[in-house]
Design brief:
Rossmann fold; 6-stranded parallel β-sheet; 3 domains; Helix Hairpins; 340 residues; 12 helices
């Protein structure tokens, strides 16, 4: 945007300089040679455009010197305006087109990514967390000021209506890991959820809601998880007042990425090395702490017993250092084989 504005200013100043040269030339010939207005402006135009026509009347020495400076000034102004026009076209319009095509190409190559619908205050915070976690995502918003902020942050984005099936397809919904409906309007989030669920029935959808009535509608339209920022904010403030040390601990393992403790969700696939193992066997191979077992039926088993067996479709909520989590992930993906 700044490049386009600078180029546009260059064009305007070049045109003004060219007009000023024409005015000065016309007045100069009238004064120096005593010509009429028509003869003077005609001579000025033919001089600065260097078309090579004959002189209207024979020039005096003063008139010839004046013509030399007029040619230099006219050509300079014209060249300045021309370079501004070229810069405006190339760096502005064509540059934006090429940049957009590059972004569209990157979006088309995304896999196992998130679609973030809405880039307001909540959406910006979600995007920053995705960036910290190095999770691929694309922002979808129909507000130009929001997509401009996303562009400044270096995020992939699509400027369009997230309730549109075509826009969701452009965002790669068939290959997405999940969708987050974070717009400020409950109606928009409901429509987005409805559209996304219709296009991709198994997609994991998280939606924002402002009240309990909106939560019910979002649940009926297919949202897997529903979040109320007001409710969460109030609950967090209450917990900070009641149990500040506990909240500090949770912040450490959920918001900071480093050698200290982290929490992860590990899904158990059919071909996973963890499929069929007990909790005790998994603990031994990774040394990570298993906080809970989420059965494929939807039931949650907190602090599962050592002989609890894990099967395909389940998921584990684990806590440990980055090294321990990486070891467990390698085992899960088959990069590290377990001894029988």
């Amino acid at each position: 945007m700044q490049v386009k504005m600078k180029s546009l200013h260059k064009v305007i100043w070049g045109i003004l300089a060219l007009l000023a040269t024409i005015v000065i030339g016309t007045i100069g010939y009238e004064i120096i040679e005593g010509w009429s207005f028509l003869d003077s402006i005609y001579m000025t135009i033919t001089t600065i455009t260097t078309v090579g026509y004959n002189e209207v009347h024979p020039l005096s020495n003063a008139g010839r010197i004046f013509s030399i400076f007029l040619i230099l000034g006219g050509m300079g102004g014209a060249f300045y305006a021309l370079t501004g026009v070229i810069t405006y076209i190339v760096e502005g319009n064509l540059g934006a087109t090429w940049g957009r095509r590059r972004m569209e190409n990157k979006i088309s190559q995304l896999k196992n990514h998130f679609i973030l619908c809405g880039f307001g205050r909540v959406g910006e915070e979600i995007a920053s967390i995705f960036k910290e976690e190095e999770v691929p995502f694309v922002v979808v918003d129909n507000r130009s000021e929001c997509t401009a902020r996303a562009e400044q942050e270096g995020y992939l984005y699509i400027e369009g209506d997230a309730t549109s099936d075509e826009i969701l397809k452009e965002a790669g919904i068939e290959k997405a890991r999940g969708l987050v409906a974070a717009l400020g309007s409950d109606i928009d989030n409901t429509y987005i959820t409805l559209s996304a669920r219709g296009l991709y029935p198994s997609l994991f959808i998280t939606a924002r809601a402002s009240d309990s009535e909106a939560e019910k509608k979002l649940r009926r339209t297919g949202a897997n998880r529903i979040v109320s920022p007001n409710s969460i904010g109030a609950r967090r403030m209450a917990m900070l007042a009641l149990r500040p040390t506990v909240m500090d601990f949770l912040d450490t393992i959920t918001r900071r990425r480093g050698p200290e403790l982290q929490m992860e969700n590990v899904a158990i696939e059919t071909n996973s090395s963890l499929n069929g193992l007990t909790i005790e066997e998994i603990r031994k191979c990774s040394r990570a702490t298993i906080l809970a077992l989420n059965r494929k039926t939807g039931s949650l088993v907190p602090n599962p017993s050592a002989d609890e067996k894990v099967t395909a479709g389940d998921s584990l909520i684990i806590m440990g250092t980055s090294e321990q989590l990486n070891t467990l992930e390698a085992v899960c993906e088959g990069a590290i084989k377990l001894d029988n």
